TrEMBL record:
Alphabetical keyword list: Magnesium, Metal-binding, Methyltransferase, RNA-binding, RNA-mediated gene silencing, S-adenosyl-L-methionine, Transferase
Needed co-factor(s): Mg(2+)
Domain Hen1 N-terminal: 1-232
GO biological process, one term: RNA methylation
Its EC number(s): 2.1.1.386
Name recorded for this polypeptide: Small RNA 2'-O-methyltransferase
Organism: Actinophytocola algeriensis
Entry similarity comment: Belongs to the methyltransferase superfamily. HEN1 family.
Length: 452
């Protein structure tokens, strides 16, 4: 199996830093399915290519019982599949996590990339990769060029071109290679759900074919597929579609929708007009806020450039009068920014739990100390309610990027400390159905400045 990654970023030789593989060396790695080799067939400041060659040991696979090849001689060792994805995880694991100590700013930058897979199941390639920003070219590979009457093989020479972060490109390949092949070579267990959500956290929730991707990646195991889709709903707010079940004519509103409705209702009752959506993500709450005509100025602030670009595209689809009331800025909730000061209200919806606990004092100082809005609305998961999510393993957070999840008492303690330090009062509002033992699934704290 063969995979190549090419960039024309200047200098293109920085690809070696991003991949943590020196261009001047050929490296070999033992993997569970054979041997992986990494080498650079071209290295210039204008264009650099890194290649991953995976040599499969089909006899060893059959002897280990780790694959259902069914026979010793076949085309499986040559066509990109989950076998190649596993090798990528071992060889390029650090790059997939977006870590590059030598070039940290480059690791967060979208760069021009060309990906080539000379033998890959290509039937769904355009459908899966185009929504992620790739230009897709899939040329069918003949069974044998010497015998054209035999027709084409099931595989394609797949070429992807686009401008993305390298980490995003690699994680997309890691997930979508077994999806394209639809024949995972190893046993799928419950931990594959966590792996899928962790690796696909930056793009899977918003992919139009997330249900197809999830089902195929999890080898069509219904229990795991349903669990993954339910947890993805928390990220994207779209109702999860039950695998293999017809869509119901009506659905109960998702927790994310209930959360947005609660926020808009509180803001309306507070009589605010100028609002900051701090950590606006991809703009789903903005979509709700612009429907309320009394909100005359809405500022969305997001630290992640990719999410902000998605929010901008969403805002572009608003009606003209709605668009005129929305402004987007890139910024962080832990750094003071004069652009967010003096507003009537600031919303932090599902934001605080993504902040490392040592940075929470900086968040409080930025929001309550520097910006000083009249009102602050904070929503966060109620950790006590997690026991009611049957598909959530004990001790796990609802999202792979959560740094913590508070109980109601912990949330109240943090809120009281904020009020004492910055001159606010707080009231707590449950969001979602209230369980008599563990409370509501989401906590909403409404802060009001005493001087107001």
């Amino acid at each position: 199996m063969f995979l190549s990654v090419t960039t024309t970023h200047t200098p293109a030789t920085d690809l070696g830093y991003l991949l943590h593989k020196h261009p001047d060396r050929t490296q070999r790695f033992d993997v569970s399915t054979g041997t992986a080799h990494v080498f650079y067939p071209e290295v210039t400041p204008e264009r650099t290519t890194a290649s991953l060659l995976l040599e499969i040991d089909p006899i060893g696979l059959v002897r280990k019982g780790g694959d259902t090849l069914g026979q010793y001689v076949n085309d499986r060792p040559y066509a990109a599949s989950s076998l190649l994805a596993v090798a990528m995880g071992k060889v390029f694991g650090t790059a997939m996590r977006g870590r590059c100590d030598a070039r940290p700013e480059l690791a967060e930058t979208a760069i021009p990339l060309e990906i080539r897979l000379p033998a890959c199941p290509g039937a769904l390639a355009e459908r899966l990769f185009t929504p992620l920003g790739w230009t897709v070219a899939a040329t069918r590979v003949p069974l044998d060029p010497a015998f054209p009457d035999w027709g084409d093989s099931p595989y394609a020479d797949l070429r992807l071109t686009g401008t993305l972060r390298l980490a995003d490109a690699l994680t997309q390949l890691y997930v979508l290679l077994p999806v394209l092949d639809d024949a995972k070579h190893y046993w799928v267990a419950a931990d594959e759900v966590d792996k899928l959500l962790r690796v696909g956290k930056n793009w899977l929730a918003t992919h139009p074919d997330r249900e197809l991707i999830t089902a195929r990646y999890l080898a069509h195991k219904r229990r795991f597929t349903v669990e993954a889709l339910e947890r993805l709903t928390e990220l994207d707010d779209r109702p999860a579609e039950d695998a293999d079940e017809p869509e119901q004519p009506e659905r109960e509103p998702s927790l994310a929708q209930l959360r947005r409705e609660a926020i808009v209702g509180e803001l309306r009752s507070l009589g605010v007009r100028r609002i900051v959506d701090m950590g606006c993500g991809e703009g789903r709450l903005l979509r709700e806020l612009v429907t309320e005509p009394t909100f005359t100025e809405i500022l969305g602030v997001e630290v992640a450039a990719r999410a902000l670009r998605t929010a901008a595209r969403r805002v572009d689809r608003f009606a003209e009068r709605q668009r005129e009331r929305v402004t987007l800025h890139q910024g962080s909730v832990t750094y003071a920014d004069p652009r967010v000061a003096g507003f009537d209200a600031m919303v932090l919806s599902e934001v605080v739990e993504h902040v490392d606990p040592p940075r929470l004092p900086a968040l409080a100082a930025t929001v309550f100390g520097a910006a000083k809005p009249r009102h602050v609305l904070v929503t966060t998961p109620n950790a006590e309610y997690n026991v009611r999510w049957e598909t959530l393993p004990a001790g796990n957070f609802r999202h792979p990027d959560h740094r913590f999840e508070w109980t109601r008492a912990e949330m109240a303690g943090w809120a009281d400390d904020v009020c004492a330090a910055h001159g606010y009062e707080v009231r707590h509002v449950p969001v979602g159905a209230v369980d008599p033992e563990v409370g509501a699934p989401t906590q909403l704290a409404v802060f009001t400045r005493r001087s107001a």
